[in-house]
Amino acid sequence: MKILIIEDEPSMQEVLKQALEQERYRVESAEDFETAMDKILAYEYDCILLDIMLPGGSGLGVLQELKKQGKSDSVIILSAKDSVDDKIEGLNLGADDYLTKPFHIAELQARIKSVLRRKIFGGQQIVTLNNVQINYEERSVSVADVPLPLNRKEFDILTYFAANKNRLINKASLAEHVWGDYIDQADDFDFIYSQIKNLRKKLKKCRAGIEIQAVYGLGYKLVLS
User: Residue 214: phi, psi to the nearest 5?
Assistant: First the structure.
């Protein structure tokens, strides 16, 4: 899962980044309004941690742009301003949650998991697709109750497909979602082919009731088999 931290205080940004990476999230950051706007317009995120007071503009302006663009990124506002009016405005603009600084990292992590469950699997921790069970919080997969070992990228790919089952996913969207803005440095999509090839082999070998189908020239989609 991919998280964007929009926070101008370097020490806070680093603490959040380290804590979230320990939870195996892929984390990107923006330290001012302009950088934040560039990132939300160019990329999709599973969750955005948003400070209201930013150099160059307000975090509420970022929320307004997300709403204007029709983006579905989940947003948790992190603010030192404990104002009811700010909370109401932020939530009315589409924020999913509001956490006042200072806060405990454990509480933030719990809230991130909560909004991601709502966004990805309709509030469920475990999603079942035929004989396949995906436990999002434990980052585990089983087929007919037998654990299926997956590496980090394979799990992220499978989760992304599961959240978009029966929908065509093009290679660019998949690469950007799983690898983030580092994809700009790639010359081709060979690394995607390799990860998906390995994932498809593992699913087939254990007779999983799902299949990742290739749609020639367009991308892939996950279907029940």
Answer: -90, 130
Helical segments of the chain, H only:
10-22, 33-42, 59-68, 84-92, 105-121, 152-163, 171-179, 190-205
pLDDT digit string (tens) for 99-147?
A: 988 899 999 999 998 888 877 776 677 889 999 999 987 889 999 999 9
Please give, one letter per residue, the 3-state secondary structure of 78-111: EECCCCHHHHHHHHHCCCCEEEECCCCHHHHHHH
Ramachandran category for residue 103: left, alpha or beta (phi over 0 → left; psi -120 to 50 → alpha) = beta
**R_g (Cα) of the chain, nearest Å:** 18
- Homologous superfamily, domain 2-121: Response regulator (3.40.50.2300)
In b/e form, how buried is each residue of 127-152, taking b as 16+ CB within 10 angstroms?
bebeebbbebeeeebbbeeeebebee
Q: Which of 209, 15, 204, 44 is nearest to 129 (CA)?
A: 209
The pTM of the full predicted model, rounded to 2 decimals, is 0.71
Summarize pLDDT for 34-60 with one digit per residue, the tens. Answer: 999 999 998 889 899 999 889 999 999
Residues 39, 29: Cα–Cα separation, whole Å = 9
| CATH topology (fold) of 126-224 | Arc Repressor Mutant, subunit A (1.10.10)
